[in-house]
Amino acid sequence: MVRTILAMFLLLAGPVWAAGTYTVVKRSAAPSVDGQVDEAVWADVPAIAGGFHYPWEREEAPKTVFKAFHDGTNFYFAFICSDAQVLVKPDFSAGERATVDVEDRVELFFAPAPIDVAVDYGLPTYYNVEVDPAGRVHDYSMVFYRAEMNSDWNLPGLKTAGCHNDRGYTVEGVIPLASLRQLKLFSGDKADTILTGVFRAEFSGSVDAPDAIVQRWISWIDPETPEPDYHVAEAFGKFVFMP
User: Fold this and answer.
1) Sign of torsion, CA 104 110 115 120?
2) What 3-state DSSP class applies to 101?
3) φ and ψ of 51, to 5 deg
4) Is-above-0.85 flag for pTM?
5) Buried b vs exposed e over 79-109: b needs ≥16 C-beta within 10 Å?
6) At 77, is the secondary structure helix, strand, or coil?
7) What is the DSSP string of 32-53?
8) Which secondary structure element, helix H or strand E, spans residue 84, and what is its range?
9) Do 185 and 110 form a contact (C-beta atoms < 8 A)?
10) Segment 31-71, tens digit of pLDDT
11) Read out DSSP for 183-223?
């Protein structure tokens, strides 16, 4: 009886996406990628909200809101992060990896297939974009498990921006769909799905004392690993792009 009532409720409620699936809606308006996330189009885009958490901490994580959409040409994404202490280096001269590794940041991982399953006698390359609160990027490619890391790789056409505010920071970005297709990331019967990880590094302390930084890790999906780890297949969900 309970199952019947639940099934009727879900039917009346409309389409229900499986856990770990996010619908990338299509919109005609293109935002200005300035880190503000204040255009009207963003208000009309569904968000991954309450799903973000600390898988490896026994406390509630600060609020993270993620939104994304496409316009048929570009994929737009935005993070809105509550943060009492925004950790960011004023100087980027040390290079993208050395700088971003000690900062607060948001992260998107894209994979063409489960990263731990061999395809054509080899593990698939996956691609990672980490953006700090100033909009600066560390992007790189990698092979499971943390092998063949290439920080010289850059995602073609990627543009990002970040903005501080009194509640934390926001990050906004755009990626040409052509770049995602060139990397052969789309899969599924309709070639409309990308395996995607959505993460946030929540750091506190001082960038001048990187060894003393308190590192906490926020994830959309709990990979159920004993230690913090985004680089496992279980950390990825699915982005389904609407036509």
Assistant:
1) negative
2) coil
3) -75, -15
4) yes
5) bbbebeebbbbeeeeeebeebbbbbbbbbbb
6) strand
7) --SS---SHHHHTS-EE-TT-B
8) none
9) yes
10) 999 999 999 999 999 999 668 999 999 999 999 999 999 99
11) TT--BTTTT-EEEEEEEEEEEES-TT-GGG-EEEEEESS--
